[in-house]
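Sequence, please.
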């Protein structure tokens, strides 16, 4: 019999356990974690550097106080993104686990919770399976309070396979359909029959502005723009990636059940957002050095692979729009006004048609989860089932890259613990 059982020893579960341990010495607390060690996902965060929080995250001060309390020194890098000073996600995980154990928290590892139930006595019965050799055994524990901290479905190899949704459902909660977010996008332009074939871009990274348009009728005008972000666009073997692209996927939800497809979205990249390339091309046309070719001029602004694709793209557009071919590798002084406009349009609004969003294995975060209407915002206690707390990514909350998702996990864990101990 425990005072509190926490299902899941990830970011939110460890934060809840430590805060509980700090605020109440006489509580009997256990974490049940399916992996052989807690915090496996924390170790993988921020490419092993752990982007622990963000100066603009909700609850930033509470989170920083929490980390100061357990001896994690942090520093702010890159626009408010906060990391442990050592830039080691492994160190953060070790410190969290050691602190929890030092506070007397029992951490039961290699134990997969298979069901949770509220008993007639208003306690929670938690059943879990564990392996010994080749045999699988079952055990159960009882607690007064239950914290569900199982995470979502993103990164399933790290233990998060969406188990918490059934647990929440069994305790009468509803689930907003989980979808993978903060992930890469597959595009039509990378398919073998595409002209030009965008696979020549694979492996190139370029800075630019990426925008997302949504319109079911296919009229993608300025009014249908729903997202825009500057950043590094990474071209992969199948489409687009990079932080700005990851953030864009949070806005690319569609309902397959209603017959919706990704066809209602269009992506445009501005590869020269700081200035107008049309003016630049006109100037080069006038002042071209002897032998200066269109490709030479574009390569002063774009990476060579991107410039090559832009020229092929403009050439294809010229054929489609005007039925004319467009010999691009020729002196810049011979460019016509129409060709300059076409090249400029291509550079500023290079268009991609999304055909797929990379799935759970590649996604960093889950969109959707336990409905927020059913959980008290300030305490994370269920509005439906007293004594039940739902924290972290299991909730229907997701944030852009930059330390915001871990912040949500730490903060909700801390808030639940404070409510349980009455502090
Ligand atoms: C590769 C990667 C990099 C990321 N980098 C960052 C970053 O730098 N900054 C940032 O803010 N966010 C980052 N995120 C997102 C962030 O890691 C998560 O949002 C955060 O860890 C969620 O915390 P959580 O406690 O809800 O779930 P998790 O940390 O995922 O923990 C859930 C735990 O529950 C356990 N569990 C699940 N089911 C059961 C069960 N049935 N029984 C027992 N245990 C169970 C799991 O094994 C897991 O240990 C990253 C995510 C990934 C995948």
């Amino acid at each position: 019999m425990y005072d509190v059982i926490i299902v899941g020893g990830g970011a939110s579960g460890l934060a809840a356990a430590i805060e509980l341990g700090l605020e109440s010495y006489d509580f009997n607390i256990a974490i049940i974690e399916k992996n052989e060690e807690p915090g496996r996902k924390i170790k993988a965060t921020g490419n092993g550097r752990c982007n622990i929080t963000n100066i603009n995250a909700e609850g930033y001060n509470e989170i920083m106080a929490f980390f100061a309390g357990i001896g994690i020194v942090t520093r702010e890098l890159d626009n408010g993104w906060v990391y442990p000073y050592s830039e080691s996600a492994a160190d953060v995980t070790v410190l969290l686990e050691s602190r929890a154990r030092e506070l007397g928290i029992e951490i039961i590892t290699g134990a997969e919770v298979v069901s949770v139930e509220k008993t007639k006595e208003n306690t929670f019965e938690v059943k879990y399976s564990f392996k010994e050799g080749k045999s699988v055994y079952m055990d159960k524990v009882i607690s007064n309070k239950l914290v569900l901290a199982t995470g979502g479905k993103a990164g399933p190899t790290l233990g998060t396979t969406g188990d918490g949704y059934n647990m929440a459902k069994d305790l009468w909660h509803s689930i907003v359909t989980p979808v993978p977010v903060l992930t890469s996008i597959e595009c039509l332009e990378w398919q073998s029959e595409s002209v030009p074939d965008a696979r020549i871009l694979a492996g190139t990274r370029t800075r630019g502005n990426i925008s997302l348009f949504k319109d079911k009728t296919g009229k993608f005008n300025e009014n249908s723009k729903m997202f825009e972000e500057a950043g590094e666009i990474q071209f992969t073997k199948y489409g687009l990636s990079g932080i700005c692209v990851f953030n864009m996927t949070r806005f690319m939800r569609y309902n397959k059940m209603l017959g919706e497809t990704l066809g209602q979205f269009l992506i445009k990249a501005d590869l020269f957002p700081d200035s107008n390339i049309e003016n630049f091309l006109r100037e080069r046309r006038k002042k071209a050095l002897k032998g200066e070719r269109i490709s030479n001029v574009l390569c002063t602004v774009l990476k060579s692979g991107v410039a090559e694709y832009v020229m092929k793209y403009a050439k294809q557009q010229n054929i489609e729009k005007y039925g004319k071919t467009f010999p691009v590798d020729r002196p810049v002084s011979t460019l016509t006004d129409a060709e300059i406009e076409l090249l400029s349009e291509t550079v500023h609004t290079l268009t991609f048609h999304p055909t797929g969003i990379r799935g759970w294995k590649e996604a960093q975060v889950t969109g959707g989860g336990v409905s927020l209407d059913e959980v008290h915002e300030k305490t994370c206690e269920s509005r439906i089932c007293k004594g039940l707390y739902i924290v972290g990514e299991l909730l229907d909350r997701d944030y852009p890259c930059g330390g915001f998702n871990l912040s949500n996990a730490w903060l909700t864990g801390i808030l639940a613990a404070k409510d349980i101990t009455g502090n």
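The mean pLDDT is 95.
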